[in-house]
Amino acid sequence: MAQVMANEGRPLRLGLIGTGVAARELHWPALRQLQEQITLVALCGRTMENVQAFASHVAETGGPVTLPCYTGWADFLDHPGLDAVLVALPATENLQISRIALAAGKHVLVEKPLAANGDEALQMLALAAAHPQLVTMVAENIRYSSALLRIKAWLDSGVAGRVYALHWQAANHMLADNRYIASGWRTDAAFPGGLLLDAGVHYSAGVQLLLGDIAEARLLTSKAATHLGAWDGASLQFTTRNGANGTLDLYFAAVGQAGFRLLLLAERGSAQFDGHTLLLHGADGSCIEEDHRSDDFGYAAEFLAFRQAIATGTATASPFAQAWQDMRVWTAALAQPGQVVQY
């Protein structure tokens, strides 16, 4: 069980490792809303120039006016009073920094996916098991999304009956200068899962949140561009242990496309979500329409869950073990494209 924070009422003192796109566009906007609960106390990155630029951005957007900046992990982890670290680095670095941070007695929240490959993911699980007094969690925001949690509550109520199908389509046209592609690591040989693994874990997490574990799957890959790695699209056809069937269609070279659509079919209802509007249809012809545009897709909620786990010892929805369950759907299927893989 994770050790409980000595003073549950005080803010969690969080250090950030990595000051790139994810930190700037996803994590800091969420943390900015939570400064009474979580205080950003130190930054670490590859170059002092980049770290200081991020510190200036934080100050200019309502955060601490001054933040200690580091380029060395050891000095950063020695920062006085540091409780926990957010690792917003490429997945290829999650294992190394998690090992060092846990050895230093820090709670760890790493960006998804859990690791660069299956072998490193299993080492991450071993690290978590070796440090049960510390919270080890993956920043899988989809498990904290208000829309998906609303669908889950609707399903759990029993009103919709048995789910028999889920189809999730996401298509975008990612050019070579796209900020997520320009960083390089997602298309590097050191990260063999590429875009399908990096983005795909969101969708497998969503499926397994709503329907339970995926039992088997087959991956049909595609390649339409030269700058997006080995594969730039795929259809994952799956069956869950509960007997539902579905597809995850992810395409990153889809000209003129941007966005996603989730369709869930049950015996007595259906659900649709396009990233903004959630529709819940009942067998009686009723339709509940909810606007979820004010939600940040769960980023703030996942930080609060991380703090809560540290403060009270409660479990999170995205520990390392669950993140591996979401990740292995893709690593196993990518290892045998076109073949049925059982989990």
Briefly say what this structure is:
Strand 13 (277-282) and strand 14 (287-291) form a beta hairpin. The two termini are 28 Å apart. This protein has ten helices and 15 strands.
Key traits:
alpha/beta; Rossmann fold; Dihydrodipicolinate Reductase, domain 2; nine-stranded mixed β-sheet; six-stranded parallel β-sheet
Write up what this structure looks like.
The chain is of the alpha/beta class and 343 residues long. The chain folds into two domains: 12-142 and 300-319, Rossmann fold; 144-293 and 326-342, Dihydrodipicolinate Reductase, domain 2, CATH 3.30.360.10. 34% of the residues lie in helices and 28% in strands. The protein is built from ten helices and 15 strands. The chain has helices spanning 21-32, 48-60, 73-77, 94-103, 118-130, 146-156, 179-182, 194-211, 299-312, 320-335, and strands spanning 12-17, 38-44, 69-70, 84-87, 107-111, 136-139, 163-173, 214-222, 233-240, 245-251, 253-266, 269-273, 277-282, 287-291, 340-342. The strands form two sheets. A nine-stranded mixed β-sheet has the order 14-13-12-11-7-10-9-8-15, covered by helices on one side. α5 packs antiparallel against α10 (320-335) and α8 packs across α10. The longest helix is centred in the middle third of the chain and has 18 residues, at 194-211. The mean pLDDT is 96.
